[in-house]
Automatic annotation (TrEMBL):
It comes from Vibrio palustris. GO terms for cellular component: plasma membrane. The chain crosses the membrane at residues 6-25, 32-50, 62-81, 88-109, 129-150, 176-198, 210-228, 237-255. Residues 37-262 form the Cytochrome c assembly protein domain. It holds the Pfam family Cytochrom_C_asm. Keywords: Membrane, Transmembrane, Transmembrane helix. GO terms for biological process: cytochrome complex assembly. GO terms for molecular function: heme binding. InterPro entries: Cyt_c_assembly (IPR002541), YpjD/HemX (IPR052372). It comes from the Bacteria. This is Inner membrane protein YpjD.
Amino acid sequence: MDNLITLVAALLYFIAIAMIVPGIVNQTGIKTKAVFVSAVCALLFHAWLLSDLIFHHNGQNLSILNVASVVSFMISALMTIAMFKTRLWFLLPIVYSFSAIVLVIANFVPDTFMTHLEDDLTLMTHISFALFSYSTLCIGTLYSIQLAWLNHKLKKKKSLAINPNFPPLLRVERHCFNILIVGNLLLTVTIITGVGFLSDMLAQGKAHKGVLSVFAWVVYSLLIWGHYQKGWRGKKVTWLSVTGAFLLTLAYFGSRFVKEVILN
């Protein structure tokens, strides 16, 4: 049954992508409602499968692939909700492709890392903030990549004005930094809850998570400060946001990848 759910969810994600890409390439209109319906159906099947993969009678399976699938679900869901307000057509194929691929791998290459979050509310709070902050900052990083791409096209004098599927550059920049600010605030809470609630956060084997998370916070804080105080734009914004996302990925998934994939 899970295999069927996985394939249906992946197919629906790729159907949504198939309705977006021609509009971007051919500069034609995109059937927003059809894309939205396909994406929502994919998300519903995605959530159904995640419930089967994660929740068991003896705890929660938070393997690296299951957590990655949760993150991809959150990013896809948030960007689908924003579809009508902001023209995210450049980003949605990337996001939906990632969700479909991770979902398929999580189902067909299962792994186990059992936890018992119901016994530790503080740990569940910390993990929730961590997932939301990581997802939000990843979206902000995607926006910065879109910002760099639009800026590159404009500098090359490519005609974007006649393409109804791309948002104005300044609007993308505004959304990008609004999202980065929210994500950095969530990361701040994540670090505080980690230090305040988890006594073993800096214990052996876990110290790198806290250190890398703080480094990422410094990078994002510097980026936000530099933009509003020094007028930083362009490649500097993209590289700093990508660096921050890379540090968080190492913090959240680095050691787990080594333990579960390489050493397993």
